[in-house]
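User: Some background: our group keeps a shared notebook of sequences we're curious about, and every so often someone picks one and asks for a predicted structure to add to the entry. Today it's my turn. The entry only has the sequence so far, pasted here. Could you supply the structure so I can complete it?
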Amino acid sequence: MNDSDHTEDFKLDLGRRPRRIRRTQALRALTQENWLRREDLIAPLFVIDGDGPKEPVGSMPGVFRRSVKDLVQECRELAEVGVRAVALFPSIDPSLKDDVGSEAGNPDGLVLRTVKAIKNSVPEIAVITDVALDPYTSHGHDGVLNATGDYVLNDETVERLCQMAVHQAIAGVDIVAPSDMMDGRVGAIREILDEAGFTNTAIMAYSAKFASAYYGPFREAVGSAGAAGTTTLNKKTYQLNPANRRAAIADALLDEEEGADFLMVKPAGPYLDIIRDLREASALPLAAYQVSGEYAQIHAASQLGWLDYEKSRDESLLAIKRAGADLVLTYFAREVADKLD
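Assistant: Of course. Here's the predicted structure to add to the notebook entry:
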């Protein structure tokens, strides 16, 4: 059959034609099911001590380690473009690291000084702090190791995490975010925060955090990669198996039972099915972390001319929302918020 065989009389007998509502931009806008808003975005930020200039993270174009003063200014500018929350991650001097992450318990530590500075200067922005030991340990793990150094001790680690959470609450943080994946840490943190009078400090649990290959650039940014000597540190005894769906839901529902106010899936893009599963299993606000590796690969592919940068960036974020996430932690937060209508 060639073009000359077609006639104007040929018509398909269709009761429904889905393309009708995709015909114009106005019709597509009227029928769009999911939208990305500024209010959905959380900006992860890296803080360093001292007053020096910001330091670029080599594997994450446009991402920097910032001094407290510079980070406060970044928070002010984020608030001006409509970003409502930031998540803080420290990169501390290697001389402060030890086997048990002692610096995490310093009541005048870098993160705590940063929280106070943000709350003093940009009180309208919500501050989320990481509750985990990996930025502070010489071995790069998220907890205290056993005598042979091959296993993270659960209960001993949770005890230290509870101390961290209380110090962060005293500093004025809005949300503590345990990212360690230890058993029982959400309930223990909730109990100690309540006992200390911080009933209004919320918990965002990294409930479904997978032992992913996508964390390498982040580990460079906070220095845990340097501590461990590798960006592929094996955390499989506490982070989730990437092959498992049911285990992720079970862990998340335990966090809900223990008092979590938010649940989180990390990474986001490779685990859209987990986001959807959790959205259907829980009514809690659901966050998803578009991690450093996801960010880096979009940049790398676009620099090589293989992807359209803005279109692939925006599609990746919209897909996370479509899967069911209410909030997205993303290194694209500022630039996307700045362009949204």
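Suggested note for the entry: The chain has one domain: 35-339. The mean pLDDT is 94.
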